[in-house]
């Protein structure tokens, strides 16, 4: 395989920069790779640092260091206790990975927030009011959601809600009603915890009950969404700040 002189020099420059920060690579692997990926290109939770505006504006760790030392608790990033030299080493490694990513062909691999802003917010609001408002409220549980999640994370919450709690309404033989969080269910018994945390269970044939499962409702919608529905919903949800 042939490689141009310019490409060779670019890659050599990256290798040289990376070689200057072996401690930075070790620090990144230990503290950052779990969220941001081993190559700083983004992971399960953390964004792609090779395309980060903050990294692009950083000089010698002056901006990266602020984030590393103080964390971003609102986004789930803890603070780290590093020395000035360790911050510089870490920043050098991140810059090396950024330069390497920019030297490679194929374009970006991540999803930008702008990629998910192509829908029609008014159409999304109409869809929301028709399909989602029975369980969700733009001024209630979803108020400010676009301030808490953005881009791909917001779309993941839309399509695959994490931590959704199943609830149950039970009608007792004497006509009394009890509601709470579904705690157990099989073909023989049903169990729940009430608002005070007390556990109740009954044979399934002894009571009438209705289970409300938000996750199942979202799963059923997956087969019904059109591409436009999802783009429009995302456009609308991003207005809920």
Q: What's the quick description here?
A:
With 241 residues, this protein is of the alpha+beta class. It has helices at residues 5-19, 22-31, 33-36, 53-57, 64-70, 84-103, 121-131, 145-148, 151-159, 214-222, 227-237; strands at residues 167-171, 177-185, 189-193, 199-203, 208-212.
Report on this model:
This protein has 241 residues and is of the alpha+beta class. The protein is built from eleven helices and five strands, in the order H-H-H-H-H-H-H-H-H-E-E-E-E-E-H-H. It has helices at 5-19, 22-31, 33-36, 53-57, 64-70, 84-103, 121-131, 145-148, 151-159, 214-222, 227-237; strands at residues 167-171, 177-185, 189-193, 199-203, 208-212. Strands 4-3-2-1-5 form a five-stranded antiparallel β-sheet, with no helix packed on it. Helix 1 (5-19) runs antiparallel to helix 6. It starts with a helix and ends with a helix. The relative contact order is 0.12.
Task: Describe the SSE topology.
Blueprint: H1 5-19, H2 22-31, H3 33-36, H4 53-57, H5 64-70, H6 84-103, H7 121-131, H8 145-148, H9 151-159, E1 167-171, E2 177-185, E3 189-193, E4 199-203, E5 208-212, H10 214-222, H11 227-237
Antiparallel strand pairs: 1-2, 1-5, 2-3, 3-4
Helix pairs in contact: 1-6, 2-6, 7-11
> Under CATH, the topology of the largest domain is which?
Cytochrome Bc1 Complex, Chain D, domain 2
Give the C-alpha Rg.
25 Å
Query: Mean of the pLDDT scores?
Result: 85
Structural class: alpha+beta
Q: Which stretches of 5+ consecutive residues score pLDDT under 50?
A: 1-19
Ends distance? 51 Å
Give the percentage of residues in beta strands. Answer: 5-15%
Kindly state the percentage of residues in helix: 40-55%
Q: Provide a count of the helices.
A: 11
Count all strands and give the number.
Answer: 5
The CATH superfamily of the largest domain appears as Cytochrome c-like domain
The sequence of SSEs as H and E is HHHHHHHHHEEEEEHH
Count of the separate structural domains: 3
- What's the level 1 CATH class of the largest domain? Mainly Alpha
Shape: elongated
């Amino acid at each position: 395989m042939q490689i141009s002189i310019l490409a060779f020099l670019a890659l050599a420059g990256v290798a040289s920069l990376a070689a200057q920060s072996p401690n930075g690579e070790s620090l990144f692997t230990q503290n950052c790779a779990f969220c941001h990926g081993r190559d700083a290109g983004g992971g399960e939770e953390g964004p792609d640092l090779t395309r980060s505006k903050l990294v692009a504006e950083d000089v010698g760790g002056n901006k990266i260091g602020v984030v590393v030392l103080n964390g971003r608790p609102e986004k789930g990033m803890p603070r780290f206790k590093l020395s000035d030299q360790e911050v510089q080493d870490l920043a050098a490694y991140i810059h090396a990975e950024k330069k390497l990513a920019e030297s490679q062909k194929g374009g970006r691999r991540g999803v930008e927030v702008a990629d998910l802003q192509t829908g029609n917010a008014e159409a999304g609001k109409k869809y929301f009011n028709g399909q989602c408002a029975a369980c969700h409220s733009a001024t209630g549980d979803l108020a400010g959601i676009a301030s808490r999640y953005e881009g791909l994370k917001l779309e993941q919450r839309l399509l695959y809600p994490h931590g959704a709690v199943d609830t149950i309404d039970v009608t007792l033989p004497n006509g009394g009603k009890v509601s709470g969080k579904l705690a157990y269910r099989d073909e023989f018994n049903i169990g729940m915890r009430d608002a005070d945390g007390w556990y109740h269970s009954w044979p399934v044939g002894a009571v009438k009950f209705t289970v409300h499962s938000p996750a199942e409702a979202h799963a059923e919608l997956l087969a019904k969404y059109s591409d436009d529905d999802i783009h429009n919903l995302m456009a609308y949800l991003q207005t809920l700040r």
